[in-house]
Task: inverse folding
């Protein structure tokens, strides 16, 4: 699917995620290495977007900034009116835990823990009652088709099943924003299609904003908006 339009969509006045002129550069002995050069967009609750681009174009760097794992060199980012980079390190960690969910290409499940325990890991610092959190974890695992795998460990699961556990784990704290970095990159086509369908269904039902980085145009087409990251800037797709 070609991604060729140069104009950005009009900013939403009701956006929950506002990204304005994000720039990320690294100092080198010769001159600054510019990775992101003025990235701007708005996203509202319940919306999804895919970001494509060649390797080294800055997709993962952008995702890390959106997830408050890295700081921009300049520009601003607010999630429901709050700028995570204005928070202390401790409050920033709480911000990430409560408002952002992460799904990576590698599932990063704890091998010694069961499926249910892995999903519960992000909720260990939650103020909700243990029974309430566990019930939610069980419901999420049922939604992703793993209700019969609760006591299994990651080594006993297929690649697609492990990634579905990672999706449930990312949603356990009811995040506002779900960030996914090549979530189907290690999966065969059938498993990727299954995981993609689960992403869309859960994202819609949870009313979560979803941003996916992917090399797959087919996978990108599942989401509301498609962008390509080129020369440090976003270009809209069709």
Result:
């Amino acid at each position: 699917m070609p991604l060729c339009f140069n104009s950005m969509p009009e900013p939403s006045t009701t956006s929950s995620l506002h990204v304005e002129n994000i720039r990320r550069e690294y100092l080198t002995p010769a001159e600054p290495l510019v990775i992101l050069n003025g990235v701007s967009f708005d996203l509202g609750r319940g919306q999804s977007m895919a970001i494509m681009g060649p390797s080294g174009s800055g997709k993962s760097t952008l995702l890390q900034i959106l997830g408050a794992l890295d700081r921009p060199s300049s520009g601003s980012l607010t999630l429901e009116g709050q700028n995570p980079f204005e928070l202390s390190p401790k409050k920033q960690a709480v911000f990430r835990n409560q408002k952002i969910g992460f799904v990576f290409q590698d599932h990063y499940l704890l091998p010694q823990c069961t499926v249910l325990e892995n999903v519960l890991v992000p909720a260990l610092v939650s103020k909700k009652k243990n029974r309430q959190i566990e019930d939610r974890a069980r419901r999420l695992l049922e939604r992703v088709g793993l209700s019969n795998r609760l006591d299994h460990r990651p080594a006993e699961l297929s690649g697609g099943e492990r990634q579905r556990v990672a999706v449930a784990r990312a949603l356990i704290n009811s995040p506002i924003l779900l960030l996914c970095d090549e979530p189907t990159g290690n999966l065969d086509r059938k498993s990727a299609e299954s995981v993609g369908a689960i992403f869309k269904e859960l994202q819609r039902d949870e009313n979560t904003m979803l941003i996916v980085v992917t090399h797959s145009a087919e996978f990108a087409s599942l989401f509301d908006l498609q962008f390509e990251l080129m020369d440090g800037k976003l270009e809209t797709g069709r």
Observations:
- Residues 1-13 have pLDDT under 50 and may be disordered.
- The chain is about 30% helix and 25% strand.
- The helical segments are 59-66, 89-99, 115-120, 130-143, 159-171, 189-206, 217-220.
